[in-house]
Sequence to fold (452 residues):
Amino acid sequence: MTGPAPSPDNRPEDRPEDRPEDQREDLRQLAWRVVAQVVDPEIPVLTIADLGVLRGIDVKDGRVEVTITPTYSGCPAMNMIALEIELALGRAGIALAAIRTVLSPAWTTEWLTEEGRSKLRAYGIAPPKRGGGRRSLFGHETIACPRCGCDDTHLLSEFGSTACKALWRCAACQEPFDYFKCH
Amino acid sequence: MRRPQADKEASLTTTSITVAETPIVLYALRRADDALILGHRLSQWCGHAPMLEEDMALTNIGLDLIGQARLLYTYVAELEGAGRDEDSYAYLRDAPQYRNLLLVEQPNGDFAKTIVRQFFYSAFADPYWRAMTASKNATLAAIAAKSEKESAYHLRHTSEWVIRLGDGTPESHVRAQTAVDELWSFTGELFEADATERELIRQGVAIDPASLRTAWSETMGGVIHEATLQPPAAAWMQSGGRGGRHSEHLGHLLSEMQHLQRTYPGARW
Fold:
């Protein structure tokens, strides 16, 4: 390899003398930064990186291949997310080869990042219980109200505005709120 | 799931397809058809459920099932390698080519019948998908890992409703009991396996549905008892859906579901 060692300020186009694998890695990282900012159309405070829906990015012949995983089997947001990825890469001038959907390992709410959980709470959605796993057939859950933090809450509807949420109400502040179901 | 448009057009301008049913294709197709037909039945409740919460519940359960069907049909398309996609299987097969259980195509009836039908199915689907996560077929195991959590939620929701209806008013009790009695003869098919499936079971690709009967009966018995309902006496069981011998109800369902593609072949939006 010739030329100066790359500094963090160097952009990929400034160093055409770089080895191909460096360029590929730069493009991969740039694409990751772009794609990681795509938000969930149903819960726009969460990016697909926060959700754990974005699984990986590969670069092949100067084009990127994005790998995503669905949350729920029938989540209608997946088509929209794929379209948003395509548009975001297009705006950044990055060529997209394909968007791959993988099922394994299966997405669970454990894939949500800590940052994602905080964002959910701030948005008024109670984040999923940690380590919930499988419950007994009629198990009862305690969900803290995302507004006042009170534990005295009640389930209003097991199915909410989207496939991933249930509707609850807080007995202390009387506010209804969404709960991101443990899955 | 993304294919060049030309391919897609070619597959949908055909008005009817014949699937090359290798054992694994047939196996996946049967589960896909169960999920699609039951999901479609539930979608018919949209805007008609007795209350808003149940309107959301039934359509959300339907959405999960249609999602499972999409994953399975996409896998079938991959196995066939004939340039088809999920839509080809849903829209371009006639009733005798459908491989779903007779239970899932039964009409919605009243709310009690829809709930009991879903309960019978979910009480099977929950342990079924959980067992299938150990399948030696990686794709089926991955689909199972998604489906089992959804099925557990469906089972919980419908169990609560069976109890609420059975142990509710005299009117809801009678309706729940009638639903249990009417649908009972369609539950035997859940546990059947033909020679093709027995070979897949031997290979560790499929699981033996008969091994789930105890778990199913226990869930069933517990909920039926708590609901103050009477379990039906042993009865002759209906069978035939896996081989394409359906009740007349499936044809009506398909004529509605496939109407657009049949009338305007290749239509897209």
Q: What stands out?
A: Chain B touches chain A through 34 residues (CB under 8 Å).
